[in-house]
Amino acid sequence: MEKTVDVxxxxxxxxxxxxxxxxxxxxxxxxxxxxxxxxxxxxTLMSAGMMGIDTPVQRRQGMNYSADDAYKELMQVFNWDCDxxxxxxxxxxxxxxxxxxxxxxxxxxxxxxxxxxPHKFRNTLHRLASYDGKVxxxxxxxxxxxxxxxDGCERYGIEIKINTRAKELIKDNEGKVCGVKAExxxxxxxxxxxxxxxLATGSISANQDLINRFTHRDKENEVKIMANVPHNTGDGxxxxxxxxxAIGDVSVMCIGPHNxxxxxxxxxxxxxxxxxxxxxNQMGERFVDEGWITENEYDWMVATSIDRQPGKVCYAIFDxxxxxxxxxxxxxxxxxxxxxxxxxxxxxxxxxCKEDNAxxxxxxxxxxxxxxxxxxxxxxxxxxxxxxxxxxGCPVKNLQNTIDEYNLACAKKYDAKLxxxxxxxxxxxxxxxxxxxxxxxxxxxxGGVKIDDRQRVIKEDGYPIEGLYGAGVMTSGxxxxxxxxxxxxxxxxxxSGRNAGKEAAEYVK
Length: 509
Known about the structure:
Radius of gyration: 24 Å
């Protein structure tokens, strides 16, 4: 089968669907999307919310956030280790994302924060929700966002050819990309001739060879990725590289510490992220302010510090007195954070006892989940510091000194070592003691193909490959090794799709 179009988009998730619609809106006459799955949506279907600055939602809520200020702050966080012009266009364009989506029929209800204090932290995470007269009930955006984009494609006459996997880019004698070779699920060859091609194939998080290449971890069992969904095979990166594209950094999105282990308890794993426990490395020494995860918008930085430790692991330690306080709801926790992270029904990723992930039961079943983790070897329930040190593999003296120093800080309500907030200082003194092994908790991998601020795929010499564009999380330059504000992945996905669609349409004209 052969087909000729103005723009061919590879990938029918958030980036590809947005690119296709925008290309049509900007004058491309015929646009075709190739999708290897039997339905559109990809990982967009799994998404919860989207980051935005200076949006219609925020203005309706009476909020005044400056894209200029947000950009300056983010560049400090990134240490300018990114494409500064691309990041500037993205942050400045997030408000337009929501205006554009509202024109397509999707109106977000709230701009919130996942952090404890809505007055201390910017409300930049946009959510769909319903109000019952007392509280807001959050709804994941994935299905409605995907439907809005698919409906938009139908409105603009854009064909989505499912069960068709792109395999190779076609280049002319001058090196310009002028089409795509693909194959249907039934083995039929498909050749699409196009004046421009937009790659939007998503993450590499299910391609073990690429994972090893970009994370520098040699053994397959060292990398456990939550979003390891079968379609994230890095097709776009491989096709672009074969066509001469430069490959940039791949950022690791982490929420650590967390255990993304098969069969692990999602409740017990979430307890590792609570700020009350102490976290030590393989030497039995503290290395991070455990309260950072609730005291800062960039909570993923805790995961960064874990990956700097020997073996890229940490051990969360707490005692039986703290478990009892959690059971009774007496340990200090900001109410808003309890509602949004712990006491809300938690998503289960195939973990242990999904029925326990509910507001009214998780506290009652903490010990059951800790026992389950102990049976799986991920947690050790100990009666002494010696037992804890043996499980960790550290010198007993190191761990004893760490605990003594920490307990003294708890008594003084002042952590001189790492300045952990006083309200999270709980001693480790009442056996049994719980030691939980955790890693940085990789959710997904973001990045790969180098682009410029016009979403043009570029070569090693910095010049673009004519006719080739990249959108979504398969592209690099918009992050600096880790992550940004909550919801940034979908924010960039929609922005980059719109940007690529506009630029491709202009190139075609």
